[in-house]
Specification:
Distance between the termini: 37 Å
Shape: elongated
Low-confidence stretches: none
Strand content: over 45%
CATH topology: Porin
Mean pLDDT: 89
Structural class: mainly beta
Order of helices and strands: HEEEEEEEEE
Largest sheet: 8 strands, antiparallel, barrel
Number of domains: 1
CATH architecture: Beta Barrel
Strand order of the largest sheet: 1-2-3-4-5-7-8-9
Length: about 190
Amino acid sequence: MKFICFVLLFVVTSRIGYSQAIIYGVKAGFNMATFTGNDVESAKLQPSFHVGGFANFLITDKITVQPEILYSGKGAKYDQGNYRLGYINVPVLAQYNDASGFFAEAGPQAGLLLTAKRKTGQTLDIKDDLKSADFSWVVGLGYKTASGVGIGARYDFGYYNIATAGIIRNKAILISIIYTFGVNEE
């Protein structure tokens, strides 16, 4: 509940504090995730997906702030089985937008663990073995056309230990299809 209140407060405050230009959008795409850390050996990439929405606030003609709310699948593959984690992620990204449509983005991301399963012939719930929050840093590149369609790629590297015992961090590569709509008052 605190997490949802924080997100709503951030979005309302952002709208009040920034200029009049705002663009809304949706995105969905493909994830390749794995684990890193001292207690991780031979983890392989686990495919998954992400889907969500964003608001893009114009600060200058080239700089925007983009808070997002995404469902994102994470986890890792091992020879002994697969780990599948589901998060609600809230990145808040600063973007540099070139007039040609290319953009670069970076910023922090908070995540709330929704599901955690380990499959080794049978599926086990492992949510109690993991912390309910994740914090990471996100960097990415992309391209948006004037019609609002775009593509983006980002790297999400966790700096927060998600395990209750040992040290395990999430990392993921995300490839997104983006569609923007809304009002852009210039």
